[in-house]
Amino acid sequence: MGSIGDLPSALGLTGIGPDKPRVAVDAFLLRHPGIDYVRFQWVDYSGILRARVVTMDYFQSIVTANKPLRCGQITLSCLPDESRVPFEASSAHLLYPDWSSLRALSNCMDKKGPNYASVMCSIIEETPGVMSNPHLCPRIALKNVVSRGKKERQLDFLIGFEIEFVVLQSAPDGTLIPFSSHPGTYSAAGLRAPSYKYLEECVQNLSDSGIPVREFHVEGNIGQYEITLAARPPLEAVDDLVAAHDIIRCTFAGHGYTATMSPKPVENRSANGSHIHVSIHPPTDQEAFLAGMLQRLPAICAFSMPSISSYRRCGDFQAGTKVSWGTQNRQTPVRKLGDGYWEVRCADATANMYLAVAAILGAGLLGSRNEEPLSWEDMSFSSGSKTAYEELPRTITHSLDSLEGVSDDFLEILSSKVASRYLYVKRNEVRALEGLDSYGLSQLLSKVF
Questions:
Q1: Are residues 393 and 272 in the same domain?
Q2: Which residue numbers delimit the GS catalytic domain (predicted)?
């Protein structure tokens, strides 16, 4: 699938990366002289992290020439079960590294093995006789939304993530079963679980990889943990999340266990969410921004809760059930934490978070641009309200239908080609996985997410 032939230069494609990466890369390698291999990474429409690994010699030639890595169009066409959606065979996808995301990876392999670095990439589609197409790339979609927020509304954003996961072990028949039976809900007893020492190792590995952690603890149910990342600007925040998921999984895999962030890995235990903390600065348009998010929340769910299994965590104190918000209210899908600061709870780790965050911010920007009124009451202070609130989608098909029926301005702010291609891939994914029972789906997604 790879190619080492002549590649077009990154020059002229604005917003992809610095024109002269040599200085930045040399400074990185001076700080990390032991790097053996570099992973060129991207997240596909199914939310799966994918990578190409290059040797240091080839990496150096890429940096010196300032050229991308060429891949087949398969980069955005694979599904969680390893099937593929049809794609244009004559197209190529060019991976343009964002050198600001270059990081050394701690414990992504055995401590005695080679040392890895990773760099997140934007994807440009190249088809013979057609102009290069940057409008399919989730990372570019997020970058464009952030840029619009600054240009149109003079808004800056910060994004933070909560990572919930459980630890599984292999049964004699090869199936994945729970590893820990220690209690959750912040219990100190959970800190004595056999897997807790590996959680501490994860936090150290995250720190060593430059990912700031705020806190970590035993989460809401048996054998469940949470790691909370510090808030960062949107692109950096999602880059951190992608790396953190990978480092957590690799740390536990190094000890023979599976850490999974999949929504419902164990039938009779709590689901895993991936709550997104969103803040806008300054918060002067906060009511219109919140109204924009709520108005388009069912469509946002197509990005933030994008798997069949996602809808097994619908309910109060999980993803929520109705389009609503509340001050410090964990029963609602959007919890207000402060001026211009919310927690979006209808999200999980099967999402391509570049697209999920782009959808949330894009919806809020439209609310701000259109001066949309906040017609939803604060559920924390409206117990006697007679307002009929719209139901959140209860299936992935429902949320995809909501995205398909949303107004053109929402698709435009995301880039309509991203949304239409995403819908095409996700419809195929639903058809590919809908025949699995809940146990088979949980087993599959636990290995992927």
A1: yes
A2: 138-449
